[in-house]
Amino acid sequence: EGYERVTMRRIAEGIEYSPTTIYNHFTDKDDLVNALCHEEFSRLFGALALGAPARDPVEWIRQIGRAYAAFGRANPNHYRFMFMTQVREGHEVSEPGQQSFDILRMAVARAIRTGAFVKGDVDTMAQVLWASIHGAVALLVTYEARQFPGAPAAPDLVDQVLDNGIRGFLKKKAR
C-alpha cells in the first residue's frame, strides 16, 4: 500500500504484537523501514557476492545481472519493497545496498581497464546496466509471462536485456 500508508499500529496488528513492543526495538517507522532495507540489501549482497567472479569482466557482469534477476524473481515481494517503493526524501542508501552496487561498479571498472568496454564514467555505466536489468526484473515480478503485451515474456528475457545493455559499452574491434 506504499510507505505513506504503513503505520506502526498496522504493522503491529499484522504481526500480532502490540505497538509498544515494536517501539521497544525501533524508534519510529523510518527506523523500522531502514532496518528492513538493511536486512534485504544484505541478502541481495550475499546473492551477488556468491562465488568467485568470472575471469572475463563481461561475463562477470552477466553473472551479476543473472544473480540480481534470480534474487528478484525468487523474492518478488522483497524486491518490490526494496526497489519499487517510493523512497522518502533524505533516505540514505544502506551499506549493503552500496556494497551490492559496488560489485557491479568493480566489474564495469575492470571491463574498462581490460579494454573490453569503452572508456567512460564507471558510475554512469553501472547505473545504465543496473537500470536495464532492473526494468526487466520489475516487469517479471509484476506481470505473469502471458500478461506481457504482444507476446509472452521471452524465457531468456534476462539474458537478452543483459546482452543488449552490455553491447552498448563493448569496445569495437578494429577490422
Structural descriptors:
175 residues, mainly alpha, 0% strand
What does this structure look like?
- With 175 residues, the protein is mainly alpha-helical.
- It contains 8 helices and no strands.
- The longest helix has 21 residues, at 122-142.
- It is globular and about 60 Å long.
- The mean pLDDT is 89.
Précis, in short:
The chain has 175 residues and is an all-alpha fold. 63% of the residues lie in helices and 0% in strands. The mean pLDDT is 89.
Shape: globular
The count of helical stretches stands at 8
Largest sheet: none
| Low-pLDDT runs | none
> Beta fraction of the residues?
under 5%
Helix content: 55-70%
Number of strands: 0
What is the CA-CA span between the terminal residues? 55 Å
Secondary-structure element pattern, one letter each: HHHHHHHH
Average pLDDT metric? 89
How is the secondary structure organized here?
Layout: H1 8-15, H2 19-23, H3 29-48, H4 57-74, H5 76-83, H6 95-113, H7 122-142, H8 157-167
Helix pairs in contact: 3-6, 4-5, 4-6, 4-7, 4-8, 5-7, 6-7, 7-8
